[in-house]
Amino acid sequence: MRILRTAEHRFAGIPDYPFTPHYLDVEPGLRMHYVDEGPAGTSPVLMLHGEPSWSYLYRHMIPVVAAAGHRVLAPDLVGFGKSDKPASVDDYSYDRHMTWLTNWLQALNLQNITLVCQNWGSLLGLRLAAEHPDRFQRIIVGNGMLPTGETRTPAIFSVWKAFATHSPWFPVGRIVQLGTERTLNKYELAAYEAPFPSTEYKAGARAFPKLVPVSPADPASDANKAAWKVLEKWRKPFITCFSNGDPITRGGDRYMQRRIPGALGQPHITLRGGHFLQEDSPEDFARIIIDALKAEMAA
Hints:
Catalyzes hydrolytic cleavage of carbon-halogen bonds in halogenated aliphatic compounds, leading to the formation of the corresponding primary alcohols, halide ions and protons. This protein has about 300 residues and is of the alpha/beta class.
């Protein structure tokens, strides 16, 4: 496996991203980057990004939650951000991503976690919580789901999958902009492009759409079904905060509220924004996290 590493100068001077970098090898020679802010002795809030973003997506939320007295960890998935990037699309699979993320979780020995996830952060994070339920205290999902391939995918997803697989042009900044209601400035667009100095660095971003289970025969379908069996008995807090402008995940919040017992009586909310609600409603999203942690302390 040929591994690429984005040069650090690509990230120099990015506005609103002052975080000290941390690195961990999730397998020999493969390095994952993560943000680790706030008091180290507190219960961690784990923020998982998706496609084709990186921990920069949470830049406006991390300081707010950390300032409220919580430890916040935001890793860059392998293939994204400051993490290493295997050079071939074939180097990526759902199971490999799960292994890399699990190795990171276990190496840091995180406990009593509040999971915050969106997009592919949900496909990985919900599996992670279901496979390690003793490590997780609550789950907060925004614009995400855990598909098993048993339900039909939206037509817009099929278009996106075909584009990611076949288009010679893959403009990451513009892709994020398409999923965001507010207009990103040139520095924000550049920050989303920063991890990818050339086309060969984008294999992980191109790989993700075709790894989503779209039929019961998909390699990840059985593992996701097993995770759902755990989630259907999940009685710890489960909160949804989807946006009102995401055609890909629309309705997923109500679906999870019906199936997951821990969702009963929780303060579910619909936020303003597109697919990347961290860009459109970061303060409101952060407030949901802080309020959920306050509710635990008051209980």
